[in-house]
């Protein structure tokens, strides 16, 4: 197999020296951890080195990175438990299944089970998806909690008139391809810890409340008076006037729907609750009168 060799801790390798390297292969192939290999030059064809596989399914590594070299040192010389933990840690919030760990470590099922159980007892990792047995490192999990709280705080700051962020939008701001069950478990844990609140598909920091500034309160009252006056023939949002539209009227309408002042019938069409209540009363009186 033709490959490009990327030295990770130096620019060149002298005869007899050793270093960490990443191979970028011409075509996909299969290796297991600890498999040995021989390196031959292309022309002339002769053996120029060799080594063994530390990670058969690596991400692209950054050269001269202390974190990368520390990770590779663990995979090269660490005990099996440290190697398993490093692979789980390296997967971040994607996590790894037992099948993936078996492939990455080349350990027997019995050895792997014993190590996983010890890591769980040490609170170093935990099982996120009970059904599929996905293992997440505790450090990644705790960082994810912190990131969710940071995202929520920033969202509340930028959108003070919104009750919270839609759950899927929050998930999209986390790491790419984050497993849905992992995300759901983090959300549920934060709810259990009374740090955040979920209302249907909306997530917010516990205690967050919509607080209107004086000019927003004035605009809200202006909007309410329009819907009260028009009763059962309310205007569409686009007809409320440029000053209301540009002044944050859309967000205020949603605030008024949430607090029960307005009723949203369809996109862009709202009724004041008193108008609907009046219509209900007239319908009831009409039915009673006609028997």
TrEMBL record:
Transmembrane segments: none annotated. GO terms for biological process: selenocysteine incorporation. Residues 149-203 form the Translation elongation factor SelB winged helix type domain. Residues 2-58 form the Selenocysteine-specific elongation factor beta-barrel domain. GO terms for molecular function: GTP binding; RNA binding; translation elongation factor activity. One of its GO terms (cellular component) is cytoplasm. Keywords: GTP-binding, Nucleotide-binding. This is Uncharacterized protein. It comes from marine sediment metagenome. The lineage of its organism: unclassified sequences, metagenomes, ecological metagenomes.
């Amino acid at each position: 197999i033709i490959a490009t060799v990327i030295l990770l801790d130096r620019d060149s390798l002298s005869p007899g020296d050793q270093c960490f390297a990443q191979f970028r292969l011409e075509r996909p192939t299969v290796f297991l951890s600890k498999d040995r290999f021989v390196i031959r030059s292309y022309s002339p064809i002769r053996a120029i080195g060799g080594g063994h596989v530390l990670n058969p399914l690596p991400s692209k590594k950054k050269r001269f990175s202390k974190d990368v070299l520390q990770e590779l040192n663990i995979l090269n010389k660490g005990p099996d438990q440290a190697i398993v933990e490093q692979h789980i840690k390296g997967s971040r919030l994607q996590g790894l299944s037992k099948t993936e760990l078996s492939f990455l470590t080349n350990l027997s099922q019995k050895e792997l089970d014993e190590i996983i159980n010890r890591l769980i007892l040490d609170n170093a990792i935990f099982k996120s998806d009970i059904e599929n047995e996905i293992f997440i490192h505790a450090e990644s999990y705790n960082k994810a909690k912190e990131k969710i709280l940071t995202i929520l705080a920033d969202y509340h700051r930028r959108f003070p008139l919104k009750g919270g962020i839609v759950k899927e939008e929050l998930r999209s701001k986390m790491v790419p391809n984050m497993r849905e069950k992992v995300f759901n478990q983090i959300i549920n844990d934060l709810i259990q810890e009374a740090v955040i609140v979920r209302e249907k598909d909306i997530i917010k920091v516990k205690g967050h409340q919509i607080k209107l500034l004086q000019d927003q309160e004035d605009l809200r009252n202006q909007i309410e008076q329009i819907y009260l006056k028009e009763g059962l023939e309310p205007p569409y949002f686009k007809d409320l006037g440029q000053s209301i539209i540009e002044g944050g009227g859309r967000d205020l309408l949603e605030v008024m729907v949430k607090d029960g002042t307005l009723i949203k019938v369809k996109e862009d069409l709202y009724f004041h609750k008193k108008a609907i209540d009046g219509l209900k009363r007239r319908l009831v009186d009409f039915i009673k009168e006609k028997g």
